[in-house]
């Protein structure tokens, strides 16, 4: 935790992602594939701001850019408590990444609106 105030919180951390990747091409009776499993270190962050009432604006994710590739998984949205042990959350999420190395050039971008419930024990 780098900053904690009454209506503001900022955390920074580390995520150890294990990536298991396969690129496969098929056409008729012919097929080719390449696989790779590896460790991808990511910076993890969380920013919470309560601008009014019980509503929390939220930016959180895991991301890192390196010389041969990048990976991002970032959520921006809002959270509202529904009770003592439950919150509702809605927002936008982007997942992007890939590699540019000697054997492969491959990047993927997925983005979507998301909504859900969090239940705390």
Number of helices: 0
* Class by alpha and beta content: mainly beta
Overall pLDDT score = 93
Task: Give the fraction of residues assigned to helices.
Answer: under 10%
Describe the structure.
The protein is mostly beta strands. Helices cover 0% and strands 83% of the residues. It has no helices and seven strands. The protein has strands spanning 3-5, 8-27, 30-52, 55-65, 69-81, 86-100, 105-119. A seven-stranded antiparallel beta sheet has the order 1-2-3-4-5-6-7, with no helix packed on it. A hairpin with a 4-residue loop joins β5 (69-81) and β6. The protein is elongated. The protein starts with a strand and ends with a strand.
Q: TL;DR?
A:
This protein is mostly beta strands and 121 residues long. The chain is built from no helices and 7 strands.
Which helices and strands occur, and which strands form pairs?
Layout: E1 3-5, E2 8-27, E3 30-52, E4 55-65, E5 69-81, E6 86-100, E7 105-119
Antiparallel strand pairs: 1-2, 2-3, 3-4, 4-5, 5-6, 6-7
Question: What are the main properties of this structure?
Answer:
121 residues, mainly beta, elongated
């Amino acid at each position: 935790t780098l900053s904690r105030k009454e209506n503001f919180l900022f955390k920074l951390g580390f995520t150890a992602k294990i990536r298991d990747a396969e690129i496969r091409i098929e056409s008729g009776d012919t097929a080719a594939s390449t696989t790779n499993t590896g460790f991808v270190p990511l910076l993890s962050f969380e920013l919470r701001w309560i601008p009014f009432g019980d509503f929390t604006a939220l930016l959180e994710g895991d991301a890192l850019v390196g010389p041969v590739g990048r990976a991002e998984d970032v959520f921006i949205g809002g959270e509202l408590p529904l009770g003592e042990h439950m919150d509702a959350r809605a927002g936008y999420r982007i997942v992007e990444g890939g590699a540019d190395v000697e054997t492969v050039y491959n990047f993927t971008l997925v983005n979507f609106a998301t909504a859900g419930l969090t239940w705390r024990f």
